[in-house]
Design goal:
The chain has 246 residues and is α+β, with helices and mostly antiparallel strands. It is 30% helix and 19% strand. The strands form 4 sheets. The protein has a 4-stranded antiparallel sheet. Strand 5 and strand 6 (155-157) form a beta hairpin. Helix 1 (18-31) packs across helix 7. The longest helix is centred in the first third of the chain and has 22 residues, at 68-89. The protein is globular, with a radius of gyration of 18 Å. Zinc ion is lined by residues 149, 151-152, 154, 185, 187-188, 190.
Length: 246
């Protein structure tokens, strides 16, 4: 069975503040009984590398290795800095074992589904915090296969290799805060920053993500509260909803 995830991304928190914000959100969710206080790696599916943050290798076209390398190494340096801080907080660890938080005792009061096995009985139902520059790569592989131009509203298909390559390059540049994060529309020829293009699921660029493994989509009527609203309340920032799968 493939593993899916719901993703809530804080799109406004800074890299420096991401860990503090993550702790506040975690504390809030634990206090509400939505997550258990103790972490464990057993509730998370294995990842060879995290697709949210290992973007350079995945996103760079195989035949263009000249310009992406320096940016790649600078990103790795930033990521290490963040990881060391994270590990010391015992909240997020990208170098050591990953930390996952199981659904808490109150989840059964907040989600009602008489027909299906409760998701909190699944082996991989943990919630994971990722505090690094990231975006949701499923946007490029599992979307409708197209992106909508913010300027003329045309949809452009990822089936066009040059457009897809340009789009992927722009995501890497955007994450590394480099210039060249714009994508030129094949219809109106206007260049727009990659964030502005509409993709399903959303690209969701940010410095903090909360990944809910195998949790049902938060828009479903079985939820008696809005999980994104709760997270928004504790973060105090803009929260973008996205989703994906392994
Ligand atoms: Zn356009």
């Amino acid at each position: 069975m493939s593993n899916t995830y719901q993703l809530l991304v804080d799109t406004t928190v800074s890299v420096e503040s991401a860990n503090v914000t993550a702790r506040e959100i975690l504390a809030g969710l634990v206090a509400r009984g939505m997550l258990e206080a103790n972490s464990s790696g057993n509730c998370l599916p294995a990842l060879k590398s995290d697709p949210l943050t290992q973007h350079d290798a995945r996103s760079s076209p195989p035949d263009t290795n000249t310009r992406s390398d320096p940016h790649g190494s600078s990103t790795a340096g930033d990521a290490r800095g963040v990881s060391e801080k994270s590990a010391s907080l015992k909240l997020i660890s990208t170098t050591g074992p990953r930390l996952g938080y199981r659904p808490g005792r109150r989840i059964a009061d907040l989600y009602h589904d008489a027909e299906n096995e409760p998701f909190w009985n699944l082996q991989f139902c943990g919630v994971e915090f990722v505090a690094q520059p990231l975006f949701n790569p499923t946007a490029l592989t599992n979307s409708d296969g197209e992106a909508s131009c913010p300027s003329c509203r045309s949809t452009v298909s990822f089936d066009q290799p040059e457009f897809l390559a340009q789009f992927k390059r722009a995501t890497v540049q955007r994450l590394n805060r480099q210039t060249g994060d714009e994508v030129v529309c094949t219809q109106c020829h206007h260049a727009s920053v990659v964030d502005a293009w509409k993709v399903v699921p959303p690209l969701a660029f940010g410095n903090l993500a909360i990944r809910f493994w195998n949790w049902p989509p938060f828009y479903m009527t079985q939820w008696s509260l809005s999980v994104p609203s709760v997270v928004r309340e504790y973060s105090g920032h803009t929260i973008v909803e996205s989703f994906g799968h392994l």
